[in-house]
């Protein structure tokens, strides 16, 4: 899958860059987790209906489904 989409739509193994927070109401929570625009993540696991586990520079992080759906990402090379 290529192009801009949400983190919830990503597949395990993808290297992605956070593009923006699509839901401004979720922005404070995502920023507290260190997931602001420009952040690079590698998707480790996508649990159906559950969290998306990513690896960040700070370490692994389980992102709940509502937050993952609010986070727009693109391929890291874009």
UniProtKB/TrEMBL annotation:
InterPro entries (alphabetical): Fe-transptr_FeoA-like, FeoA_core_dom, Transcriptional_repressor_C
Gene3D superfamilies in the cross-refs: 2.30.30.90
Keyword Iron: yes
Superkingdom of source: Bacteria
All copies of domain Ferrous iron transporter FeoA-like, residue ranges: 5-75
SMART domains linked: FeoA
Keyword Iron: yes
Signal peptide coordinates: none
GO molecular function: transition metal ion binding
Keyword entries, A-Z: Iron
Protein name: Ferrous iron transport protein A
């Amino acid at each position: 899958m290529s192009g801009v989409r949400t983190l919830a739509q990503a597949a395990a193994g993808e290297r992605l860059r956070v593009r923006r927070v699509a839901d401004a109401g979720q922005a404070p929570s995502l920023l507290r987790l260190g997931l602001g625009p420009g952040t690079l993540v590698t998707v480790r696991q996508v649990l159906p209906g559950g969290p998306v586990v990513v690896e960040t520079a700070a370490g692994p992080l389980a992102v709940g489904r509502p937050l993952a759906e609010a986070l727009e990402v693109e391929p890291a090379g874009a």
